[in-house]
Amino acid sequence: MNLRTTKIAVLIAAMGIAGTAFGQAEAIKPITKDAEKQVEKIEKKLDQTGKDITKSIEKMKAAKKFEFGQAAPEFELVDSAGKKHVLSEYVAAGNVVVLEWFNPQCPAVVKHYNAEGTGTTLKIEKELANEKVVWLRINSGSEESKTSGKEYTEKVRKDWKIASPVLLDMDGKIGRKYAARVTPEMFIINREGVVAYHGAIDSDPSTRKVGDDLWVRDAVRAVIAGETVEKPQTKAVGCSIKYAPEKKADAQD
């Protein structure tokens, strides 16, 4: 008797025992082709279920590694001008750090900038010029997306008169650590290294009009003052980040 026949026999025997327990015992019948097919179907279904469970576990491992209220994930990135930036060094120096996920071709981003350098976020930066605030834009677009790259990003930074750095995250490791989904998407990190605000720049989700409420400005001011942010989480609306394909090794980091 081979292994498959043994498994079928055990299955049928178990069914027979169960029937006896309920007073419905019948003589065990010879194994039929229909029974074999039924067992094969069950085995295939169980096999597929196992694969689905494995995939779910892998997705969970690769899922976002950041939740609001936790310490901000550490990073070390180089900007479009070639300078290195380390988050923990800024925090250790007593700075409030603002992260802005950035894509210069996204209309939801473009509405906050202009050639005169007087757009929404640049105005906020100027207002906070005398405070210990570091504003870092991060471009997590892949090379294939044509929305990133060192030369292109540096050209945009100069054309838009952005004085602060734009960091390059073309492999998407840092964007994924923060579970950043769209551009623009904001994270404000307090002096303890904890994310105190996550969400949109302003209250208007359109790509043309800037909202009356500048949530990110209000949040930064509250964090600087050591106060509770009134709206610590808002919904970031914009263009989905075109991440580079994730490598298995990266997903397990």
Can you tell me about this structure?
With 253 residues, the chain is α+β, with helices and mostly antiparallel strands. It has 2 domains: 3-62; 76-251, Glutaredoxin (3-Layer(aba) Sandwich). Helices cover 38% and strands 15% of the residues. The protein is built from 9 helices and 9 strands. It has helices at residues 3-21, 33-62, 87-92, 107-110, 120-127, 150-159, 173-177, 215-224, 248-251, and strands at residues 76-79, 84-86, 96-101, 133-139, 166-168, 182-183, 185-189, 195-199, 239-240. It has a 7-stranded mixed β-sheet with strand order 2-1-5-4-3-7-8. A two-stranded antiparallel ribbon has the order 6-9. The protein starts with a helix and ends with a helix.
Give me the CATH architecture of the largest domain, please. Answer: 3-Layer(aba) Sandwich
Instruction: Give the proportion of residues in helices.
Output: 25-40%
Please work out how many helical segments DSSP would assign: 9
CATH topology of the largest domain: Glutaredoxin
Number of strands: 9
Strand content: 5-15%
CATH homologous superfamily designation of the largest domain: Glutaredoxin
Question: N- to C-terminal separation?
Answer: 48 Å
Number of domains: 2
Query: Widest sheet: strand order?
Result: 2-1-5-4-3-7-8
Helix/strand structural class: alpha+beta
What is the C-alpha radius of gyration, as a whole number of Å?
A: 28 Å
Shape: elongated
How do the helices and strands line up, and which of them pair or pack?
Blueprint: H1 3-21, H2 33-62, E1 76-79, E2 84-86, H3 87-92, E3 96-101, H4 107-110, H5 120-127, E4 133-139, H6 150-159, E5 166-168, H7 173-177, E6 182-183, E7 185-189, E8 195-199, H8 215-224, E9 239-240, H9 248-251
Parallel strand pairs: 3-4, 4-5
Antiparallel strand pairs: 1-2, 1-5, 3-7, 6-9, 7-8
